[in-house]
Amino acid sequence: MHASSSSSETTARTPALGFRRTLANGWHHFLTITRHKALVMRHCFCVGLYKQGLLHDLSKYSPSEFMTGVRFYTGTHSPNAESRHQTGISRAWLHHKGRNKHHFEYWIDMSLDGDHRLVGFRMPYRYVAEMFCDRLAASKIYRGAAYDPGHPWQYYHTGIEGSPYLHPKTHEELSRLLIMLRDEGEAATFAWLKRELRRRKRARNHYS
InterPro entries attached here (predicted)? Predict the structure, then answer.
C-alpha cells in the first residue's frame, strides 16, 4: 500500500519533460558525470589507484541511473538529491550504492551479534581512498569557482559524519584525509595517501 501511494505521488509530482528539455538535460547530465569521472580518475591516478580510477562510477551510464539524472538534472546539485526532494526516494541511488564499493553504504550488512541489526562494516582502505577522491571531485564540480579545500570536510562534517551505518574506523580514516586536505592542501594529501596505500599494499594489510 505504501509503495502504491509513493508511486502515485511520484507520477503527480514529476510530469513528463518536453522533448527539448529532455535532450538538454541529457546532454548536460552526461557532461557533468563525465567531467566528474575524469576528475576522480585523475585524482585516483595521483595516488596509484589506476584500476579504480578507470572503473569509477561506470554504473552512472546505465539506464537505471542515467535516466534519473536526466529527469532530475539541475546543474547545481545531485539529481539523486533532487529526486528525493520531489518524490521521496532516489531509485538511481539505490542502484548505485549497491554496485560501487567506494560508498560506505555498500558495506551495510547484518550485525555479527545475531540481533539482525543493520550495521556498517569497515571499508578496505583502497575504497576509503577512492571515496576521498570522489568527494574532492564532487566538491570541485558543484562548487566551481567557489571551491576551496575546506569544502569537502565541511560537507562531510555537516551531512554524513555520525551516521550509524558508518564504521568508526572508516570515519576516522576519511576524516584524516579530508582534514589534511583542508589544512595542508591537495598536493601534500595526495603524496601522503600514495605512500600510505603503498605501505598497506606491501604489508598485505588493507585495513591497518
Answer: DUF5662
- Cβ-in-10-Å burial (0-12, 13-18, 19+) of 161 comes to middle
Instruction: Give a yes or no: residue 3 inside a domain.
Output: no
The contacts of residue 90 (CB under 8 Å, 6+ apart) are 68, 80, 81, 83, 84
172 close to 128: Cβ distance less than 8 angstroms: no
Cell 501511494: give the residue. 5
Specify the number of domains making up the chain: 2
| pLDDT tens digits, one per residue of 53-87 | 999 999 999 999 999 999 999 988 899 999 999 99
Q: Which three cell numbers stand for residue 198?
A: 603503498
Give the model confidence (pLDDT) of 102-128 as tens digits.
Answer: 999 999 999 988 888 999 999 999 999
* Domain boundary pick from 55, 71, 97: 97
pLDDT digits (tens, 9 = 90+) for 181-191: 999 999 999 99
- Quote the pTM value: 0.87
